[in-house]
Design brief:
elongated; 2 domains; Rossmann fold; binds nicotinamide-adenine-dinucleotide; UDP-Glc/GDP-Man
């Protein structure tokens, strides 16, 4: 394919050289003449493992050249990869100035060019940037409709500086945010033959994936370093701890606990986080990530309260009360906290939790419920229908099949889904359905 690559920094330079190495015909574009000249001399404008040899090779073979002329690059290509910088503004917001400028320039050149060009954004940008900011610019300057007159896609890159050439040829994944199928097909064809799973998703999803990845990577490093500092202060070998931690592929290095759902609770996580943070504080070790995990959890619970408030309705049903579906353990249950908050705000509440009712019936947890939570005990009902009949708004915190099968579609109470119901994707378009964080 004939490809133009805008921005010859780390991302653009590596993408341009590697794509040329795969047999594509590539023109690199940069506003910085020094970078353009360096590439045309067969030298890399960035320091990076293997990039020097690769650029020398592909420039010598004629597969890669560079220019400062946007029009020339657009006329000589059918796909354009945008790899310009998106730095932070002083207030932390994303600077889209370079993206806007290059999009205007490409749009202007497209207005002159016949045939369908596909514009692919590789730069990291917040969800909504492509469709709400850049596509209107392209349409304005090119004078056509995205998805019809020209293609648009977002293709974030996941290469690590230092090993990016190696990562390009062996990527962890390829993500294609496609405005339309044809745009996605062009991007998929660029990487044809490379290993790794290819994900074709809506444009804003592709934009968000990059942030999920980088936020998680930062979180992982911060977590490991805080655990290291606490262990060191407590005289424990932190690397030994993390070696064993990492060996657990069921709960630790696994998809466990990584899907948006409801707040956590129970008899272990809150207690153990509190005592670990307390031990760190006593040892004068600052652990801001660990210290704020419970704060984050409370904020998530508060989101559920706000969703109820937003409905403006007073009669509330709650399905589920124990801290985890399928148990009768009410200790530090976030659903108990939610019920107590709503009661405190004067909501008229009815609660159903089959496991809690059963354990009450058997006498197992009766004392706990009746002495510790008498205000909730009197709101518990064994009937799913009774809750549904009472409620103008219903909170679903359980996967109990008896509850799921009784939930209405479309009419009836507003359904606030706290757990991402098995049919959440289908329900999202139904009136009266609200997901907690989806
Ligand atoms: N560096 C990384 O490892 C990495 C990894 C993944 C994603 N990203 C993202 O990729 C994007 C690029 O990052 P980078 O590190 O390569 O940036 P960089 O600052 O190294 O390079 C950006 C290049 O774009 C050029 N440029 C600016 N405006 C231009 C225009 N109108 N036309 C042509 N060229 C123009 C600049 O001169 C510069 O050479 C950013 O959004 C970044 O967040 C970077």
């Amino acid at each position: 394919m004939r490809i133009s690559v805008f921005g010859l920094g780390y991302v653009g330079c590596v993408s341009a050289a590697c794509l040329a190495g795969m047999g594509h015909e590539v023109i690199g574009v940069d506003v910085n003449q020094v970078k353009v000249d360096l590439v045309n001399e067969g030298r890399a404008p960035v320091v990076e493992e293997r990039i020097g040899e690769l650029i020398a090779e592909v420039v010598a073979s004629g597969a890669l050249r560079a220019t400062g002329d946007v029009r020339e690059a657009i006329m000589g290509s059918e796909v354009s990869l945008i790899c310009v910088g998106t730095p932070s503004e002083p207030n932390g917001s994303l600077c889209t100035t370079y993206l806007e400028r290059v999009t205007e320039q490409i749009g202007t050149a497209l207005a002159e060019r016949g045939g369908r060009q596909t514009v692919v954004f590789r730069s990291t940008m917040l969800p909504g940037t492509c469709l709400k900011l850049l596509v209107p610019i392209l349409e304005k300057y090119a004078g056509g409709t995205a998805g019809v007159d020209f293609g648009v896609a977002v293709n974030p890159e996941f290469l690590r500086e230092g090993t990016s050439v190696r990562d390009f040829f062996d990527p962890p994944k390829t993500v294609i945010g496609e405005l339309d199928r044809a745009s996605g097909d062009v991007v998929a064809a660029l990487y044809d033959g490379l290993p790794g799973e290819v994900f074709r998703v809506p444009v804003p999803t592709a934009e968000a994936i990059k942030y999920a990845d980088n936020a998680f990577h930062g979180l992982k490093i911060g977590f490991a370093n805080e655990m290291g500092a606490v262990c060191q202060a407590l005289g424990v070998d932190s690397h030994q701890v993390m070696d064993v931690f990492l060996a657990d592929r069921k709960l630790n290095i696994s998809p466990a606990y990584l899907r948006p759902g409801f707040a956590f609770g129970g008899s272990c996580l809150p207690k153990d986080l509190r005592s670990l943070v307390h031990a760190a504080q006593r040892a004068d070790v600052s652990v801001p990530i660990l210290s704020n995990v419970l704060t984050s959890n409370s904020a998530h619970l508060q989101r559920a309260v706000e969703l109820v408030e937003r409905t403006g309705r007073r009669r509330v049903g709650l399905f589920g009360l124990s801290f985890k579906p399928g148990t009768d353990d009410l200790r530090e249950s976030p659903l108990v906290q939610l019920a107590e908050t709503l009661l405190g705000k004067g909501y008229d509440l009815r609660i159903h939790d089959a496991h809690v009712s059963l354990s009450r019936l058997l006498g197992a947890n009766r004392e706990y419920i009746e002495t510790r939570l008498p205000h909730l005990a009197q709101l518990l009902t064994e009937s799913v229908d009774e809750v549904l009949e009472h409620a103008e708004v219903c909170l679903i915190g359980t996967r109990d099949p008896a509850v799921l099968s009784a939930l209405p579609h479309g009419d009836g109470p507003v359904l606030i889904d706290l757990i991402h119901l098995p049919d959440a994707d289908a329900r999202r378009t139904e009136p009266g359905y609200v997901g907690l964080a989806w």
